[in-house]
Design a protein that fits this description.
Strand 4, helix 4 and strand 5 form a beta-alpha-beta unit. The strands form three sheets. The protein has a nine-stranded mixed β-sheet with strand order 11-10-9-8-12-6-13-16-15. The chain has a five-stranded mixed β-sheet with strand order 2-1-3-4-5, sandwiched between helices. Strands 7-14 form a two-stranded antiparallel ribbon. By secondary structure, the chain is an alpha/beta fold.
Length: 363
């Protein structure tokens, strides 16, 4: 089979479609973030992006904006068009009815219900199909959604603010503020793009965090607290606002008393106080959570690291050093460097006061 040949117009249209997909990341509910562009040679005729469930998909919006001019044009889309009836009609029906002659898709939809079937339906209707342009960029945009839809387990991002020597707080547990205002804004952008933010009980007791989106526009994530047994305090901000922002407390065993009827409790039925992280993630997946931002503290970071339950690190380093303090992780004693978790796809972003490291564990 010949590899598809993409011209300058295809590349320009796909670049715009990818930008559209990125622009709605975190604002599409249960839907993946998708961008679509209808074009003919160098002219863009219509653009669309995913909306919340029940509203138009990217392809439908782009075709609506293009109108009758879509006949004979091409469509660049960052994900294979859907071919199943859900809250909306299949996008493949709209594409065929519009008279689009060619679809350039970044990648097939990993959803087992769709995978390849949407492209096949279009091809059978006489639409020319080409796939693979912008594949790696499109995969990154929806990597959390793809993991969840194929495994039922949320995509896990570990975020931490550290000194250059790897400490997240002073010995007194004072940590405000190790990193800069710019770094904190980036963290709130992360929260806005993530389904849930997760902390340990110690973080709730010591910091009484809000775990909301404040420095940027965006919806608040679900708040998840992992506890070795006790409930969160009734006086905590999380408990007081649980009726407004979905809040989940995960414990090894069922609690005898609960501090709030507004909080969702997950009892793992574990025999020990040590939380099995994979089981935690499976239960969060059942609860509909597709992505989790882990924000500490040290015991939680260590559990996720030792149990190999991390998909991506986003670490914010500040240009400062503490002679002593709370380490990022403090796991079991190691005997060899071979026990380390090797990382790939490492990128470093310079900030005004410090830098951000993004990396993924090797599989």
């Amino acid at each position: 089979m010949k590899s598809p040949v993409f011209d300058l117009y295809d590349r320009q249209a796909m670049a715009k479609a990818l930008d559209l997909a990125r622009s709605v990341k975190g604002a599409t509910g249960d839907n993946p973030a998708v961008g679509a562009v209808v074009y003919k040679k160098g002219a863009i005729l219509g653009m669309g992006r995913t909306h919340m469930p029940g509203q138009d998909h990217a392809e439908a919006e782009a075709l609506w904006r293009a109108g009758k001019s879509a006949r004979g044009a091409s469509l660049a889309v960052t994900l294979e068009p859907c071919c199943i009836h859900g809250r909306t009609s299949p996008c493949t029906h709209a594409i065929i009815a519009s008279g689009i002659k060619r679809v350039v898709a970044a990648l097939k939809d990993p959803n087992p219900l769709i995978h390849g079937r949407g492209l096949l339906a279009l091809a059978r209707a006489g639409v020319r199909i080409e796939c693979g342009l912008g594949e790696s960029e499109a995969m990154v945009i929806n990597e959390d959604f793809f993991k969840y839809i194929t495994t039922g387990i949320p995509f896990v991002v570990v975020k931490a603010g550290l000194t250059l020597n790897g400490l997240i707080a002073a010995d007194s547990r004072h940590s405000r503020w190790i990193t800069s205002e710019e770094a904190r804004q980036l963290v709130h952008e992360l929260r806005a793009r993530t389904n849930a933010v997760l902390v340990g009980l110690s973080t709730v007791l010591e910091d009484n965090p809000k775990l909301t989106v404040r420095h940027v526009e965006g919806r608040n994530p679900i708040r998840v607290v992992l506890s070795h047994g006790p409930d969160i305090p009734k006086t905590s901000y999380l408990a007081k606002t649980a009726s407004d922002i979905r809040t989940i407390v995960v414990t090894p065993r069922a609690l005898r008393t609960r501090c709030s009827n507004a909080i969702q409790y997950i009892d793992l039925g574990a025999r020990t106080s040590r939380l099995p992280i994979r089981q935690v993630l499976r239960r969060l997946g059942v609860a509909g959570i597709k992505s989790v931002l882990v924000e500490g503290g040290s015991e939680i970071y260590t559990s996720f690291l030792e149990q190999r339950c991390i998909d991506m690190f986003q670490l914010f380093f500040a240009p400062r050093v503490l002679s002593s303090g709370i380490p990022f992780v403090h796991g079991q004693r190691t005997l060899s460097v071979r026990e380390s978790l090797n990382l790939r796809d490492v990128t470093i972003r310079q900030l005004q006061n410090g830098f951000m490291v993004t990396a993924r564990p090797e599989r």
